[in-house]
């Protein structure tokens, strides 16, 4: 089998199964694992998949820039944003992450709600300018333009001084083995700090993020994480996510 044919077979398998295991593929094709690993390295360098220990996972489409992400899974993001907004209770202090789904959440907070929103996203803060009952605390720092959020030492210091009821987190990938992932190391540090400063974490996981992975691990999945998903979320990856102990909630079921 020619190199081009092998690579196409790998991508087809990845699309069909949601993952590629190097050992299994090498046995199926009668090739060495070293050959498969080399192909995976090259495909990863081309931005076509995310290498993980023992194989590869689909690359997260959500790694696109903010403008590009606005075109992805718009129906999912609207449903999840509305459901997340309904989860905020009067008097609570909540962290809202950056990202397009987080903007939808801010946009749909009930008009009568009185609460405090702490965010490092200027986009989220702007959505709440006209919300009379919501106090907005905007965390500053260096602007990470890709995601339009503040990062860096100043942001970390500010986060450490606040305690929140819930952190509504955005990610670029959610996968059973890889866990919660994002594409930038500094952004991953910020998300971990926000998790540590909140009593609970709810992950806003639109369908294109489920079963995908990015390079930087935020945290493994487990019982401390709630995944808020859309009704259209792919069932097979969701089954694997539930096995990690994570609590999976459908947006349609949030009252």
Explain what the structure shows:
38% of the residues lie in helices and 25% in strands. The protein contains ten helices and 15 strands. A seven-stranded parallel sheet has the order 6-5-4-9-12-14-15, with helices on both faces. It has a three-stranded antiparallel sheet with strand order 1-3-2. A three-stranded antiparallel sheet has the order 10-11-13. Strand 2 and strand 3 form a beta hairpin. Helix 1 crosses helix 3 (33-45) and helix 8 runs parallel beside helix 9 (185-196). 44% of the residues are buried.
Strand residue percentage: 15-25%
Structural class: alpha/beta
What is the helix fraction of residues, given as a range? Answer: 25-40%
Q: End-to-end span in angstroms?
A: 54 Å
**Major beta sheet summary:** 7 strands, parallel
The global form is: elongated
Q: List the total number of helices.
A: 10
Gyration radius, rounded: 19 Å
Low-pLDDT parts are none
H and E string: HEHHEEHHEHEHEEEHEEEHEEEHE
Cross-sheet strand order for the largest sheet: 6-5-4-9-12-14-15
Q: What is the mean pLDDT?
A: 90
Number of strands: 15
Summarize the structure.
The chain is an alpha/beta fold and 255 residues long. The protein has ten helices and 15 strands. The strands form four sheets. The chain has a seven-stranded parallel beta sheet, with helices on both faces.
